[in-house]
Amino acid sequence: MWLQKVLVPLLRLYLCGIKVLLYQMFNRSFTLPVLPEQNGRVAIVTGGTRGMGLATARHLASLGMHVIIAGNEREEGRAAVVDIHEGGCEGKVEFIFMDLTSLKSVQQFVEMFRARGLPLHVLVNNAGTMMVPEMRTVDGFEFHFALNYLGHFLLTNSLLDILKRSGRQGSRSRIVNVSSATHYAGVVDMEDLNRRACYSSHGAYAQSKLALVLFTYHLQEQMTAGGFPVTVNAVDPGMVDTALYDNLWSLAQAMKKPVAKTLFRTPAEGASTTVYAAVASEMEGVGGRYVYNGRKTRSADLSYDSELQAELWKKSCELAGLREN
Ligand SMILES: NC(=O)c1ccc[n+]([C@@H]2O[C@H](COP(=O)([O-])OP(=O)(O)OC[C@H]3O[C@@H](n4cnc5c(N)ncnc54)[C@H](O)[C@@H]3O)[C@@H](O)[C@H]2O)c1
Predict the structure, then answer these.
(1) pLDDT (tens digit, 9 = 90+) per residue, 53-99?
(2) GO molecular function, one example (predicted)?
(3) Are 44 and 238 in contact (CB under 8 A)?
(4) Active site residues
(5) Taking the CB of the first residue and of the last residue of the chain, which one, N or C, has fewer CB atoms within 10 A?
(6) Digit-coded pLDDT (tens) for 108-160
(7) How far is CA 311 from CA 141, 169, 189, 220, in A?
(8) Which residue has a Cα nearest atom 5 of ligand 1?
(9) How far is Cα of residue 122 from the mean position of the Cα atoms in its chain?
(10) What is the pTM assigned to this prediction?
(11) Is residue 307 part of a domain?
(12) pLDDT in tens, 240-289
């Protein structure tokens, strides 16, 4: 059990990391094309207070977008807003509190957003955590599963009617789910989504990122079937030097530092694929893709399993207290 649930996910995850680093050693970061102005359009970026979320929020605001940063760190949120405004961006930026580890907090954020009566053109599900020790959220869910996946599942579904209303043929609303190459090492354990049997932080992180890809494909299918003007894509930013690695074991931290300096991407480079999926003209009408380094890439074989997609969707509705549609 330990071998299969702890050691194997750990080795698979580090193997994924090595592959990404080798790629980054020989390939430059993706360069964004010229992006269209976004004046009058509205975006929500979860976890936009630092790292790639902040870089994404800054870039979208520089295009004239009204950006709402949703996060659980108020001080960091205020500082992010000041930082973006001081950079002389074109758009409006604000921070609204939302803790993705609490379903109630997500619902309160949605209520607050609805009360504003704003449209929503871009939703970037970026917030995340990695390799936290075994912990439960206030709702009793495993931390990675709740924060990286289930909170975003509830947020997206709760905002879907606004996204549908805000999109048009030729100018669809866009949902961008920030996944990771670690999803290739992931397994979704439908019998034990909360990983109670034998906890591995590596396995839990990889599962949450695979769940996001399964969710992306299933939701896109629903949008296409219903003829709704909304597209959904998953993006993979590569390995990026951010606070995400703060929970690594101390030995791994020490080894990471020199490697990160030379081979990791900067937050702005990492955010470029997210920004591309969120606003590039080339991505208009394009959905159900896994985008890496600005290109459509094949995701893990498991992620295309439509039965697993549907099963996860059904279970997620139950867990998040949503009615299945
Ligand atoms: N850094 C990498 O190498 C890398 C690689 C692949 C994917 N990713 C993904 O990119 C995304 C952004 O990560 P990053 O690298 O910029 O890390 P980061 O730690 O700098 O940013 C994470 C963001 O999530 C927010 N967050 C954390 N807990 C939250 C909660 N409970 N509620 C709301 N927001 C919360 C943080 O406040 C922060 O703004 C994550 O989803 C991560 O899994 C990162």
Answers:
(1) 999 999 999 999 999 999 999 999 999 999 999 988 877 999 999 99
(2) oxidoreductase activity
(3) no
(4) 205
(5) N
(6) 999 999 999 999 999 999 999 999 999 999 999 999 999 999 999 999 999 99
(7) 18, 30, 11, 16
(8) 239
(9) 13
(10) 0.96
(11) yes
(12) 999 999 988 788 888 888 888 889 999 999 999 999 999 999 999 999 99
Write the CA distances from 78 to 6, 67, 262, integer angstroms: 39, 13, 31
Q: How many domains does the chain have?
A: 1
Report the percentage of the chain scoring pLDDT > 70. 98
Residue 3 has pLDDT above 70, yes or no: no
In ligand 1, the atom with minimum distance to the C-alpha of 239 is 3
Q: Which of 126, 264, 273 to mutate to test the pocket of ligand 1 (most atoms within 8 A of CB)?
A: 126
Ligand 1 pocket, mutate which of 240, 257, 261 (most atoms under 8 A from CB): 240
Q: Give the Cα separation of 158 and 111 in Å (integer).
A: 9
The string of DSSP letters for 254-289 reads HHHHHHHHHHSBPHHHHHHHHHHHHH-GGGTT--S-
Residue nearest to atom 17 of ligand 1 (CA): 244
The pLDDT assigned to 2 comes to 66
* Residue 82: domain span: 33-320
Complex-level ipTM: 0.99
What's the gap in Å between 222 CA and the centre of ligand 1?
27
Q: Looking at the domain assignment, is residue 8 inside a domain?
A: no
* pLDDT recorded at residue 60: 97
Q: Report the atom number in ligand 1 closest to the C-alpha of 151.
A: 32
Find the farthest-apart pair of alpha carbons in the chain and give their distance in angstroms, rounded.
55
72 close to ligand 1 (CB < 6 Angstrom): yes
Cα of 117 vs centre of ligand 1, distance in Å, is 28
> What values do phi and psi take at 174, rounded to 5?
-130, 135
Q: Is residue 254 part of a domain?
A: yes
27 CA distance to ligand 1 centroid (A)?
Answer: 24
- The CATH number of residue 86's host domain is 3.40.50.720
Does residue 53 have its Cβ closer than 6 Å to ligand 1?
yes
